[in-house]
Design goal:
Layout (H helix, E strand, L loop, with lengths): L5 E2 L13 E2 L8 H23 L4 H37 L2 H14 L2
Antiparallel strand pairs: 1-2
Helix pairs in contact: 1-2, 2-3
Length: 112
Amino acid sequence: MNAQEHRHDPAQAGGCAHSHTHTHPHEHAHQKAVLNRLSRAIGHLESVKKMVERGEDCADVLIQLAAVRAALNSTGKIILKDHIEHCLVDAVETGDQETVERLNRAIDQFVK
């Protein structure tokens, strides 16, 4: 890779998690926020698991699961915003139709 190319690492949250090469310098502007939100969601989900193990009320478990889902959706929105602001802008400028198509497929999966 030359100095202008960046290969995305799927382990990096907050940006484009795919393995093709972009020809622009890529920043994961919201990576720290995404990692913090994911850590909180993981902790919350572990708490929900313990609620189930203790046999707590199903309605309470469902409410907590809804909170976890909302946290994940919020995190996804941050990742999407980062992707649009960085990867998609560059893809449009360079005519990279593959990146645009990948985003469309990802959005379809995310909003199911």
